[in-house]
Amino acid sequence: MGTTIQAQFQVFEETGKPFQFKNKEFQTTLGPGEAMVKIILSTICGSDINTIEGKRKEDIPCILGHEAVGEIIAINSREGFSLGDRVTWTIADSCGKCPACTEYGLPEKCYELFKYGHGSIHNGSGLNGCYASHIHIRKGTHMVKVPNSVSDKAAAPANCALATMVNAVSQTKAIPKKAVVQGGGLLGVYACGLLKEAGVSQIFCLEVNENRFQLIEDFGAIPVDAKDGQKAVQFILDRTGDGVDAVFEVAGIKELISQGLALLRPGGDYILVGLVHPDSEMGITAEQIIRKCIRIKGVHNYAPWHLDESIAFLERNIGRFPFDELVRPPFKLNEIQEAVHEAQKQKWMRVSVKPYKT
Ligand SMILES: [Zn+2]
Ligand SMILES: [Zn+2]
Q: Is residue 140 within 8 Å of 133, Cβ to Cβ?
């Protein structure tokens, strides 16, 4: 099924080099199950900032950007979807056949994994990322329709940050009564909202940036100033007795691991999400884990069902939590450099980008 589009996109070539803006005609053949999606709004994830700053390596040149919401403008044999549908999609394209897909329940670890916003411009049609007017959705990618009540701003970060936290929060043995979230960035506030909705009665969110405290409260948690770690631990232990049932690490700071252990009650769950980088030597002993009988679980990305649940969570809670306030009003696609600078300042949980011509 042939489709011709005029696409605009920003190419990332290497650290230190400005993005290259391109405007090019694409003649693409959509195979069965594939779709061409017009990007409505994308958001800049922290992992893209790391790539831009040279802290992680991607297949370059590439179109970065993996968090977005879009509209289907062409589709070939995909049941349940039609032209004009407003959708989001899994960051991962999986084969559906390998052991990770069929036996381990981890399609995000597929042996044939392809990740949007992480693939070379020479892979497939090249329209693989979200800092663009269009993206080519592959057949092993799970798509989800976004209800009208869920705004573009609320929907855009769902397919990375929110779905990852839906996965993380689903990993505890039982719904905790008391929980700690280490880090009050976007992952952290999503964790707070998810735990609140699940009925967790005491949620503490450790954060050093006081400007984030109001949002943390708005998402149902008690913000705890983490600048003085000792004091913060005491504050939480004073209110929880022997500690909390679950700790969620989303700050990406290795020194916080021993703090998390101190906050866990015996037999608690420690869910690690943020420390997904090489500088993550934990500095704890096996004895500490054994004597406290705790369980440590790593979470990296998510599976299709977590994205379904993310969109359902947004729909159920759109009036309850201020999702729109997490995202800055959009930059235009040709202003990607300014958008990245704004994201680096960390004033907003997310900076958004809108293709100026679609
Ligand atoms: Zn991301
Ligand atoms: Zn697979």
A: no
Strand partners, 331: 353
Please give the model's pTM, rounded to 2 decimal places: 0.97
Closest CA to 240 of 289, 208, 204: 204
Distance from Cα 158 to the centre of ligand 2, integer Å:
22
Closest ligand by atom to 101 CA: 2
Ordered by where they begin, the domains of the chain are: 2-158+302-354 (3.90.180.10), 163-298 (3.40.50.720)
Ligand 2 centroid distance, CA of 92 (Å): 10
Q: What is the pLDDT of residues 169-220, one digit of tens each?
A: 999 999 999 999 999 999 999 999 999 999 999 999 999 999 999 999 999 9
Residues 6+ away with beta carbon under 8 Å from 243 = 178, 236, 237, 262, 263, 264, 265, 266, 268
Ion ligand 1 contact residues with beta carbon within 5 A: 45, 47, 160
Distance 43 CA to ligand 1 centre (A): 9
Ligand 1 centroid to 325 CA: how many Å?
19
